[in-house]
Design a protein that fits this description.
Cyclic Phosphodiesterase, Chain: A; globular; 5-stranded antiparallel sheet; alpha+beta
């Protein structure tokens, strides 16, 4: 059986991804030790499955299709920057989502997650927090600089993106980074 590394995401409009990428380009010279996400790979993950059997993809697709049916398109406003697990111990740097956008995304994610749980894909234990991953901190040497920069930029507005579908991707890890392939799109 072939295994695929799979995740479900909301794709952002190119204009918003370009604004986020321009921000990354501005701050990159000020911060070392971060592996940044390329413009074409910026997205808002709803669910990361990890490795799944290729034969499970049709069942996943049916579940997601049922979950999103009747859900209206979402206007996602990308606002602010932060880090997981915290600003002072940054391991993942992210762009946030405005409160109004977050509510709609959380409802959608919750519906999808509940339906996927019914077919055997467990929900995460931690609370879902909508975000777009910008980069991963490779070492702790520059944490103070990252903290200071994120505090300075905490209210940056990257614009809004109308999201009209949910996308199921496969991700293949390569030496130069991940390569994404669209497996299916589900209209909202």
């Amino acid at each position: 059986m072939k295994k695929l590394r799979v995740f479900l995401a909301l794709e952002l409009m190119r204009s918003v991804r370009k604004q986020i990428s321009a921000f990354v380009e501005r701050i990159t010279p000020q911060v070392d030790g971060v592996k940044w996400v390329g413009c074409d790979y910026l997205h808002l993950t709803l669910k990361f499955f990890g490795e799944v059997d290729e034969l499970d993809i049709p069942e996943i697709c049916q579940s997601v299709k049922r979950s999103v049916a009747g859900h209206p398109p979402i206007k996602v406003r990308c606002l602010g920057v932060g880090a997981f697990p915290s600003l002072s111990r940054a391991r993942t740097i992210w762009v946030g989502v405005s409160e109004a956008s977050a509510d709609s995304v959380i409802v959608l994610q919750s519906n999808v997650d509940a339906d996927l749980n019914e077919i055997g894909f467990r929900s995460e234990n931690r609370r879902f927090q909508p975000h777009v991953t910008l980069g991963r901190v490779r070492d702790g040497q520059h944490r103070q600089r990252i903290h200071d920069l994120l505090v300075e930029q905490s209210d940056t507005d990257f614009g809004s993106s109308l999201v009209e579908s949910v996308t199921l991707f496969s991700s293949e890890l390569t030496k130069v980074g991940p390569e994404y392939t669209v497996l299916a799109r589900f209209p909202l």
